[in-house]
TrEMBL record, chain B:
It comes from the Bacteria. The keyword Metal-binding applies. Belongs to the prokaryotic molybdopterin-containing oxidoreductase family. Coiled coil: none annotated. Transmembrane segments: none annotated. Residues 47-110 form the 4Fe-4S Mo/W bis-MGD-type domain. This is Twin-arginine translocation signal domain-containing protein. SMART domains: Molybdop_Fe4S4. The lineage of its organism: Bacteria, Pseudomonadati, Pseudomonadota, Alphaproteobacteria, Rhodobacterales. It comes from Paracoccus aerius. It is found in: Cell envelope. Keywords: 4Fe-4S, Iron, Iron-sulfur, Metal-binding, Oxidoreductase.
Length: 813, 199
């Protein structure tokens, strides 16, 4: 989230598209209710299904799964055509006036530089025209046909309300009604918030869905303001934290990157990370990258990381592919190239797509280690459970270790919520039986491997032998020690960068800000964005002062928010170029003439002058991007791409399949249903229920009783067409697998008219498996394909094609 | 209120006050002692309160856990009840159908209580000690790493990566667990590293 849950009360209009907050985030959704009740805010829901969020909305419109970009580009087109643009914001805070290279263009749904063979773009034309002075060429009058604004106008021209109706199935009058409601928020004193979740991310072009809305929000001037923003609701309780700390193939904590093979040495690695401003006077905060990186290397390897050895650069692995993400690892596993695999609190056999392939892959492992508070389908993948897990145990040679861990009630530490708040929690129960903390287990594994290297020697033991491990009890590192390590501390005296006589921290002291991180080895810190969370003043994440001066929703003294305890990102954009709030009633910060101050921590160097220094300080432009240069693999503007399986061909280019640059594995390339395949005529989409959380609560007898059994949801029309009775048993199958379920027949799903065809949508909830307290069932992953988003590899769970038929009742045992 | 009184202490005082006042007002002064023997003490008044956050979705509602026994004091603690934390700015004491049933998640019949091992081709688990399990894991890692670690690519560039072992990290463990996991996995050169952000 750019903003926070409590900030939603400040909005005038909520759009929930790509999510279902009332059911999936009920207590957060109460802030929508608060805004409706106390501010008179309105709620719009756009969703294939009439969800419980829709049931309390002011306006609802249906949309076909996987067509969101058409809707969003249509919205941008309407805003431009009807002059619903916050012009001062767009002119000053976006790259609308920047000129783009003459070679850049598009045709047939593709941008310049497409290579069909490589399934990739040459992105060299997707960039600004640079002047001889090293700065971007601009036309502040927005007259130049090559400025971003005019290119955007041309790009969205095809997305007419008629096109939206044809491709999305959203009736034109409903689309126009929503456009009018959203258009009101182009006023500097009206704002809209976007709340989204997996409904937008789990597509082969998920990242572009989100960009589409972010661009609309910029055009309306809604980023950086109270009650505005792009608010990813996020799924699990600490998935924000695990991503912040870089537990991904290609990440280093704080959104730094693991090097690639092309970056053969430190100098090469750093050469593309200079981040010099490309507009005069801009902050370009990533210029500090070397400070964050060196401090991370010092946190990892202490005295073994020196300026002379490039901070132990070669202790880091170098990637030969963009990432060894989950799906790539399962593919390698299926080819017999992975021997040993760990699952820590993760149940991939139900969470990753293409269940059949997953089971095959796991069966080729030598050893699987599962650490979890609960028993899981993953730890039992080798056990026969009839139709629910039809395997031959004797033929599966994988050894499995199932290790019991503690859960939240028994451990201590911080979780990061969707609003980036790091909240500390304390243990209140004794672990059951022999269950152990994950920290103890990881320490045991590490220390035992280290001992084997000490005793036996072996291949490149240096990064293991030299890893910093100075905990009070090396066998059992404690949460406070680990939190302090991530925050960072001074290794030598740290002086103020502007005033070398002023001491910011003595050696051994906790740092109070990432502003004190240094690139000369005098500081260490595991995760720069968490600097300030555990300072000399103590544990800031444990703060519990819930006062909120003037009811702004900030709660600055409650816990700690990264970065720098800031609650609203880009908050300097809440002010005009004179530094005064666009909407005085919604002030966050303002320019006093000498400095920035207000209710939140300013997202701007505190003495940087407004009008001169732009508020998007992480970008070398200082401006936000309506045109994203070569930053994304599938285009500098979001463009319509059908899902890999779809009822109709892409209207711009019938030859184009799915996202033209998304990764497709050779082994599963023939596992997609053809476009318009009569064997798979129905669109399916996965979703969650309010009574369950993922695959966990089916272990809880209370929740298992509330929603005991796997079902699929279909419309009355489809039930009639296929002769399916309410509550009857059905078989649903895709090109990859089949499931049996109860049919729930509702009015919440309705057939849609797509490009002249009637299209039915089937809803497939995700919560059942073959262990736990609920009845045995299936997950959507038995049906979905192994293709992901082109930029971040989020699997396409929200749009795929299936068939359905009535099925004989399950025999009663 | 400028009184240093814990929520638990407050409840205890309030409960006793209500019982005494109403009995007195109804004129049963003589029966007071006998009647008070029937008034059950508020169960949670004798428990330890601990602040925590709900482990499900990332709204991260504040919760209060009530336990018999105090973990901080080194005692064995049994979780008796969980409710929403009224002081928490986000949820203000409310919980959803998932959070409201949290206690039964902690006590789920399928919680794991001891390490188990499934041998190749076996149709069930057998018990194993922590020592044996951890030694088995360390041995397997060391052997696989030594056999398959890639030190340099064809061009001779040091790449120091290990692709034949992978690690999927969680979605609800603490930041502190995440950091220790990061250190362990990265120091060994494992690149098949992912978390549950996308599914």
């Amino acid at each position: 989230m750019t903003n926070s849950w409590t900030d939603i009360k400040n909005t005038d209009l909520v759009i929930v598209m790509g999510g279902n907050a009332a059911e999936a985030h009920p207590c957060g959704f109460k802030w929508v209710t608060e805004a409706k009740h106390h501010r008179g805010a309105k709620l719009i829901v756009v969703d294939p299904r009439y969800t419980r969020t829709a049931s309390v909305s002011d306006y609802y419109a249906p949309i076909r799964p996987g067509s969101d970009i058409v809707f969003l580009m249509g919205m941008i087109r309407w805003m431009i055509e009807n002059d619903k643009v916050q012009w001062d914001y767009v002119r000053n805070y976006t790259n609308a006036s920047f000129l783009v290279k003459d070679e850049f263009g598009w045709s047939d749904g593709l941008f310049t530089g497409y290579d069909e063979e490589k399934r990739d773009y040459d992105k060299s034309s997707w960039d600004y025209k640079m002047g001889e002075d090293g700065f971007v060429q601009t036309d502040p009058t927005l007259q130049d046909p090559r400025c971003v604004w005019n290119l955007l106008k041309a790009h969205v021209d095809a997305y007419t309300p008629e096109m939206v109706e044809r491709v999305c199935g959203t009736p034109k009058d409903k689309f126009l009604h929503i456009a009018e409601m959203i258009g009101e928020c182009s006023s500097p004193t009206k704002t809209m918030t976007s709340m989204y979740a997996l409904g937008w991310t789990q597509h082969s072009k998920g990242a572009q869905n989100i960009r589409g809305m972010a661009m609309l929000q910029l055009i309306l001037g809604n980023i950086g303001v109270r009650g505005g923003g792009m608010n990813a609701l996020r799924g699990h309780s600490n998935i924000q934290g695990l991503t912040d700390i870089g537990l991904m193939s290609n990440l280093i904590p704080g959104y730094l990157n693991i090097p690639t093979e092309k970056e053969a040495d430190w100098a090469t690695y750093m050469s593309t990370r200079g981040f010099k401003p490309i507009v005069p006077n801009q902050v370009s905060y990533w210029q500090n990258y070397p400070k964050f990186m060196v401090s991370f290397m010092k946190a990892m390897w202490g005295d073994a990381a020196t300026a002379e050895n490039d901070w132990a650069y070669h202790y880091l692995p170098k990637l030969d592919v963009p990432a060894y993400d989950g799906m790539r690892m399962f593919e390698l596993m299926n080819h017999g190239k992975v021997n040993l695999y760990f699952c820590q609190g993760f149940n991939p056999i139900l969470s990753f797509p293409n269940r059949g392939k997953m089971t095959e892959a796991f069966s080729k492992l030598k050893m699987l280690v599962v650490m979890d508070p609960l028993t899981t389908e993953t730890s039992h993948f080798w056990q026969n459970h009839g139709i629910h897990n039809d395997v031959d145990s004797a033929s599966i040679q994988t050894e499995v270790l199932e290790l019991p861990t503690t859960c939240f009630a028994e451990d201590e530490g911080a979780l990061v919520n969707s609003g980036r708040w790091l909240q500390w929690h304390w243990p209140g129960a004794t672990p059951p039986g022999e269950a152990k903390h994950d920290t103890w287990i990881m320490a045991q594994i590490f220390l035992r491997v280290k001992k084997l290297y000490q005793d036996e020697g072996g291949v490149f033991p240096d990064p293991i032998l030299n890893l910093t491990w100075d905990y009070r009890d090396p066998n059992d590192p404690k949460a406070d020690e680990l939190a302090r390590e991530m925050n960072g501390r001074a290794l030598a005296t740290v002086y103020d960068a502007a005033d070398p006589t002023k001491v910011m921290a003595e050696a051994g002291q906790q740092l109070s800000s990432f502003g004190h991180y240094r690139d000369d080895g005098s500081t260490m810190g595991g995760c720069w964005i968490y600097a300030g969370s555990w300072t000399e003043a103590g544990n800031m994440m444990a703060r519990r002062d819930n006062t909120d001066p003037d009811d702004t929703g900030m709660f600055l003294n409650w816990a700690f928010a990264w970065p720098a305890n800031r609650r609203i990102l880009y908050n300097a954009a809440s002010c005009d170029p004179q530094g005064k709030p666009w909407d005085p009633s919604r002030k966050i910060i303002e320019w006093t003439g000498e400095k920035w101050e207000g209710y939140d921590v300013p997202d701007m160097p505190v003495t940087a002058r407004p009008g001169e220094v732009r508020p998007f300080i992480m970008n070398p432009e200082g401006a936000s991007r309506l045109f994203s240069r070569g930053m994304m693999r599938d285009g500098p503007f979001p463009t319509h791409m059908e899902p890999f399986e779809a009822p109709i061909a892409n209207v711009f280019n019938p030859r184009m399949r799915g996202n033209p640059v998304a990764r497709v594995f050779e082994s599963t390339a023939d596992q997609f249903a053809a476009i318009g395949d009569p064997e798979f005529p129905f669109v399916a989409t996965s979703y969650r229920l309010t009574e369950h959380f993922h695959y966990w609560t089916k272990h809880n007898p209370v929740n298992a009783a509330l929603q005991p059994e796997f079902f699929v949801e279909i419309s009355e029309e489809l039930a009639a067409e296929r002769g399916i009775a309410r509550g009857g048993r059905v078989r649903v199958w895709s090109k990859r697998g089949e499931v049996w379920a109860k049919a729930v027949v509702t009015k919440r799903l309705r057939p849609m008219q797509i490009d002249g065809k009637t299209v039915h949508v089937i809803g497939i909830p995700l919560h059942w498996g073959f262990v736990g307290a609920a009845r045995k069932g299936f997950g959507p992953n038995s049906l979905t394909s192994q293709v992901g988003d082109a930029n971040v590899e989020t699997p396409e769970f929200k749009a795929f094609m299936v068939n359905i038929e009535p099925s004989a009742e399950e025999p009663v045992a | 209120m400028n009184i240093d009184l814990s929520r638990r202490g407050f409840l205890r005082l309030a409960g006793a006050g209500v019982a005494a006042t109403s009995l007195g007002a109804m004129g049963f002064g003589g029966a007071e002692a006998a009647e008070q023997a029937h008034v059950r003490a508020f169960k949670l008044a004798t428990t330890t309160e601990t602040r925590n956050t709900c482990p499900y979705c990332s709204v991260a509602c504040g919760i209060i856990m009530y336990s018999k026994g105090d973990v901080k004091a080194g005692e064995t603690a049994e979780l008796l009840h969980i409710e929403g934390d009224a002081d928490h700015p986000t949820n203000r004491g409310t919980l959803c159908p998932k959070g409201a049933a949290l206690k039964d998640f902690v006590h789920a019949p399928t919680r794991l209580t001891k390490p188990r091992y499934r041998a190749a081709g076996a149709s069930d688990f057998q018990d194993i000690t922590w020592e044996e399990a951890l030694d088995k894991i360390a041995r397997a890692m060391k052997d696989d790493r030594d056999a398959n670690f890639i030190q340099a690519n064809e061009a001779g560039v040091p790449v120091n990566r290990w692709t034949t072992t992978g690690f999927l990290a969680a979605s609800a463990t603490t930041n502190e667990t995440a950091w220790l996991t990061y250190k362990t996995v990265r120091s060994m050169g494992i690149v098949g590293f992912d978390n549950q952000a996308r599914v």
